[in-house]
């Protein structure tokens, strides 16, 4: 199992987590242990913000990580990244790393969401969990 403190290691999105986006209007959540193990995950780490000025920085990091993806879905609203679901197979730990990005501000919503998940769960299992 990977070290949870460096779970986003070697990913561009690592530059966004652990308070690096600032504390104002940014919410960060880390869930590990029994609460996520039932979904085949070791870690669920999310960010949400209402600051449209952070969208460019967040989407750049997500798109950089998309280049390493073994599976990806990307959708744009005009020239701005609206949605991305990226999966990267991590052969070091025989696990998956998943990234979900959703810029609700582009569709009249109130926030931008970035979620990093790591564990044994494959793409289909994670999508099923997210629908709940």
Could you characterize what this model shows?
This protein is α+β, with helices and mostly antiparallel strands. It is built from 3 helices and 6 strands; from the N terminus they run E-H-E-H-E-E-E-E-H. It has a 6-stranded antiparallel β-sheet. Strand 4 and strand 5 (95-103) form a beta hairpin. The radius of gyration is 14 Å and the shape is globular.
Short recap of the structure:
It is built from 3 helices and 6 strands, in the order βαβαββββα. The chain has 132 residues and is α+β, with helices and mostly antiparallel strands.
Features:
132 residues, 19% helix, disordered N terminus, single chain, 39% strand, alpha+beta
SSE-based structural type: alpha+beta
Radius of gyration: 14 Å
**SSE string, helices as H and strands as E:** EHEHEEEEH
Unreliable stretches covering 5 or more consecutive residues: 1-5
Main sheet overview = 6 strands, antiparallel
In what range is the share of β-strand residues? 35-45%
Biggest sheet strand order reads 1-2-6-5-4-3
Q: Percent helix among the residues? A: 10-25%
How many helical elements?
A: 3
Shape: globular
Question: How confident is the prediction overall: mean pLDDT?
Answer: 89
What is the number of beta strands?
6
Cα distance, first to last residue? 26 Å
């Amino acid at each position: 199992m990977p070290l949870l403190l460096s779970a986003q290691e070697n990913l561009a999105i690592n530059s966004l987590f652990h308070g690096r986006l600032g504390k104002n209007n940014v919410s960060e959540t880390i869930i590990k242990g029994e609460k996520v193990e039932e979904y085949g995950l070791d870690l669920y780490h999310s960010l949400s913000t209402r600051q449209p000025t952070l969208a460019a920085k967040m989407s750049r990091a997500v798109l950089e990580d998309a280049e390493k993806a073994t599976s990806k879905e990307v959708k744009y609203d005009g020239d701005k990244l609206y949605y991305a679901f990226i999966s990267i197979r991590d052969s070091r730990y025989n696990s998956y790393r998943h990234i979900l990005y959703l810029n609700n501000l582009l569709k009249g919503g109130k926030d931008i969401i970035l979620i990093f998940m790591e564990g044994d769960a494959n793409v289909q299992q994670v999508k099923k969990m997210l629908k709940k």
